[in-house]
Protein: Glutathione hydrolase proenzyme
Organism: Simiduia agarivorans
Amino acid sequence: MPVLTGLRLLFCLVLLLWCTVAHSQPADEPAYAQANTRGAVATVHPLATRAGMDVLAKGGNAVDAAVAAAVALGVVDGHNSGIGGGAFVLIRTADGKLLALDGRETAPAKAHRDMYVVDGEADTSLSQMGPLASGVPGSVLAYEMAIEQAGAKVYADVLAPAIRLAEEGFEIDNIFAGRLARSADRLARFDGSRAVLLGPDGNPWPRGHTLVQKDLANTLKAIADEGSDYFYQGGFARAVDQWMAANGGLLSAADFAGYKVIARSPILFDYRGYQVVGFPPPSSGGVHTAQILGMLEGHDLKALKDGERYHLIGEAMKLAFADRAHWLGDPDFTQVPKALVSRDYIAAQAGRILLNRALDVTEPGDPLATAEGEPAITDEPASEQDLFFKHTTHIAAADAAGNWVAITTTVNTDFGSKVIVPGTGVVMNNQMDDFSVQPGVPNAYGLVGTEANSVQPGKRPLSSMSPTIVLKDGKPVMTVGAAGGPTIITQVVQAIINHLDLGLPLEEALAKSRIHQQWRPDMLFVEANMPAGVRQELVSRGHKLKEMGPYGSTQAIALDAQGTLIAVSEPRLKARNK
Ligand code: DON
């Protein structure tokens, strides 16, 4: 790898790890997570959490609350997510059904494998910004389906808090202002974005400004009135089609009309008497959460010293991410071997891990060698019934009736493609960058990939978003998810280990120092507060350490010993907010 590319990659990773703590932080006492006798909601923004809790108070269930919070986040935290992006919705209903609704973006019909290759070199500025960066957004339909299949309210009721926040405005907080300032020069290139996000003098709106988003309110109202048809068949699709045609984009009204949310079978994995329910491809979350936990199952993690435990966890992460780069992609376009999550393969991979030495992993594993004849992971629906229905943030919700919900949703990087299509108020995603734009060329998160994740028309880019629900004896005991590109997977794994294996209360489980290893670059990222003794244990085993400031954004809900719902939003956000 050329030195410059390597440095750029390292810089991106450092920025990524740093910026995942930089979520919304209102100045007053922020209620990021709330729980009462009706249920619980955890998000990164108090106004979104309140939107969810209000819907619960009005007779909604956890599905309604999670969607209300998700749509509200798109208004008050629109640098991370919004209806111009995609979502994975994982639900465990009170009567025990599991739904995994894949609202990931799809590549336009006119997209092609080398669309970002200019003079033989990948130009990632094209996949990250402007008209070529967006896929068809899936959140609007995924949320509608979630409400129809498992909610207690109608979509219009659940959209109401977001419409109010867009119409009446909300006060820009420190973090929103910071993200805006950082993106301002790029937002300024697009008329629609300039009109909403920059002031009349061309400067980004500052902290404390009340941001009113009339166009976004009108788009949300039209969805409330006409349902998702407005977005996929109606006025919104037409506005995008016209803007794209005039600005060199490929997305068309036909792409919108053909968009489908896919009801997939979740990845189910037994772990020390728990059943972990993860999101299947095109998320890599479920597969690699299962792999990492599975590789660790042979160890008594609680009995180990921190340094020993972090070593083993980091090694399992490394092996899993090597597989991610090679095997993972949209299962409708590429064969993702089911054997990746087979017991035999995971045991074989675990057998490679040494207690006292970090491995030099040069290649992905070979799941087909250990589990010949295992089929590919497909989008077979979980039941026949499903055939008929169908910079990132995580929403955790649960209710007293026993509905548990995990939604991870994103426009990808800050303000996605930086494009607001004029008149819509909607920030369009830059999820096309999650494809492997050229084999071996890293994306915004330093992730490399192969043909399995190449651009193809209608294909969904590989994701790290990992909404997860953990069951014990068939009943939910924990739901968790995170933001932060590839660190999403490693944050989720550590939350599960810290809470369920080490027995830490949920807040402490999320607060404990994190590590991250993603195979390439071959470095073990450790948080700055990692004790010197632990670092020494890691270095002595051959890990190359890279220190990070506090990073991550995990939201989780679990039951305490009395069976009461406990909701926690990323503890590092609160610390930064003081
Ligand atoms: O789907 C993915 O994996 C990425 N688009 C997620 C982006 C993300 O987490 C950005 N956060 N820092």
Observations:
- DSSP finds 20 helices and 22 strands in the chain.
- The chain has a mean pLDDT of 91.
